[in-house]
């Protein structure tokens, strides 16, 4: 079994423990041993030895709301203009870019075509293309006039969502996406800023529609993720057992209570990145739109602070994938968590690693530097606890290891164990 020994690293293990100096031995795809006595761990003669020179070794990042097929297009309708073949290649490029930027796992929040996440996930798992661990999503299931319904009467226009009305139509789409192999079924029960007939505070799906999708997911052991900005949509999806609540920005007191009551099974990702970018960086906003976005940002940040205090798992993942909020700068969400949500850098890292491992449904083996855990690791030049923004700089990622294998190998720090012993 191949071995890699990291010597002289500062470990942020993802558990929340204080960082510590150690040597870390990886055997195969697992973390075999962590030695706090310098030089105490013994590696096989053919092991690769990496002298960390005091760099930070931490778990790989988990993106909680990934859209690798969203292609950084200027608009949502533009996603419908990409033919399937090009779209598959574009998605292949972006999953690699996310791994290049330290995301060793991505939980997809919606695919722009029914099978694109699925075939890319399968190709990664088969070792055919590089990419993170990946849970594949269905396209967004939305109602007529809801977020994602970009059709126009009398015009042909392909969309990135599927439009359904009534429980039977939702059930049919849900079954179809289960058949094709999606891990996560995505629904859009609330509206969104900029959707003319369905602004963010509105709730557009019915209980029966949400229940139909949740029922299919339940029977097939899949999860449902909900685009739920409005308070009523958060409550609605929690009533039906949805496990992943995206946004929750406009939650009211009752919705916060319900999220807290479900904290052992539910994950919240506010996607602050896209709201921030839409408000602060996109430009050409009407005064009304600016007011609404400002309100959503302020209330959303306050709500996430409250949820974090109440023990709800709030995860970074900022809906990156549009020209105004592009991939692969996804690690910017960790900085948003620190600057806007008041998380400490350690809390932001826990959210993106330990909680991320749980989100990937591998809580007992992913997201921490711990003996027996999967070796998804970053060797970082510097201390992200001092400056969380350095995780956004791919040049500061000295090494990226996924499943025990170097995706990015360190330059000038590697030697062979046998040679090292002889010196
Ligand atoms: Zn999204």
TrEMBL record:
Keyword hit for Zinc: no
Keywords in alphabetical order: Hydrolase
Top-level division of the source organism's lineage: Bacteria
Amidohydrolase-related domain ranges (all copies): 56-404
UniProt GO MF annotations: hydrolase activity, acting on carbon-nitrogen (but not peptide) bonds
InterPro entries in alphabetical order: Amidohydro-rel, Metal-dep_hydrolase_composite, Metal_Hydrolase, Metallo-dep_Hydrolase, OTAase-like
Statement: the UniProt record of this protein carries the keyword Transmembrane: no
Name of protein: Amidohydrolase family protein
């Amino acid at each position: 079994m191949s071995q890699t020994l990291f010597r002289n690293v500062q470990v942020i293990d993802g558990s929340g423990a204080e960082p510590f100096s150690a040597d870390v031995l990886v055997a195969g795809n697992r973390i075999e041993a962590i030695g706090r006595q310098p030089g105490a761990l013994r590696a096989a003669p053919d092991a690769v030895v990496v002298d960390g020179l005091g760099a930070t070794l931490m778990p790989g990042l988990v993106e909680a709301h990934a859209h690798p097929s969203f292609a950084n297009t200027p608009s949502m309708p533009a996603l419908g203009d990409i033919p399937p073949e090009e779209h598959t290649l574009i998605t292949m490029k972006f999953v690699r870019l996310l791994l290049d930027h330290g995301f060793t796992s991505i939980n997809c929040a919606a695919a722009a075509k029914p099978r694109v996440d699925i075939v890319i996930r399968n190709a990664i798992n088969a070792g055919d293309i590089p990419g993170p661990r990946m849970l594949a999503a269905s396209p967004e299931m939305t109602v007529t006039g809801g977020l994602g319904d970009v059709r126009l009467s009398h015009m042909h226009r392909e969309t990135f969502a599927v439009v359904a009305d009534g429980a039977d139509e939702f059930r049919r789409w849900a079954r179809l996406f289960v058949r094709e192999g999606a891990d996560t079924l995505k629904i859009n029960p609330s509206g969104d800023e900029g959707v003319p007939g369905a602004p963010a505070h509105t709730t557009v799906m019915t209980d029966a529609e949400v229940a139909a999708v949740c029922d299919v997911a339940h029977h097939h052991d899949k999860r449902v993720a909900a685009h739920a900005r409005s308070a009523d949509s958060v409550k609605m999806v929690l009533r039906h057992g949805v496990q992943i609540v995206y946004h929750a920005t406009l939650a009211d007191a009752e919705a916060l209570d319900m999220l807290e009551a479900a904290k052992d099974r539910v994950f919240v990702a506010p996607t602050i990145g896209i709201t921030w970018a839409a408000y602060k960086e996109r430009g050409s906003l009407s005064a009304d739109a600016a007011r609404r976005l400002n309100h959503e940002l302020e209330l959303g940040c306050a709500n996430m602070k409250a949820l974090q205090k109440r023990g709800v798992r709030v995860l970074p993942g900022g809906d990156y994938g549009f020209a105004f909020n592009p991939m692969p700068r996804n690690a910017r969400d960790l900085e948003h968590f620190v600057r806007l949500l008041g998380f400490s850098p350690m809390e932001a890292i826990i959210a993106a690693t330990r909680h991320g491992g749980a989100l990937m449904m591998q809580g007992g083996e992913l997201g921490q530097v711990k003996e027996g855990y999967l070796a998804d690791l970053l060797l970082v030049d510097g201390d992200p606890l001092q400056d969380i923004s350095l995780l956004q700089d791919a040049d500061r990622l000295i090494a990226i290891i996924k499943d025990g294998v170097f995706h990015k190998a360190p330059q000038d720090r590697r030697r062979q164990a046998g040679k090292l012993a002889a010196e």
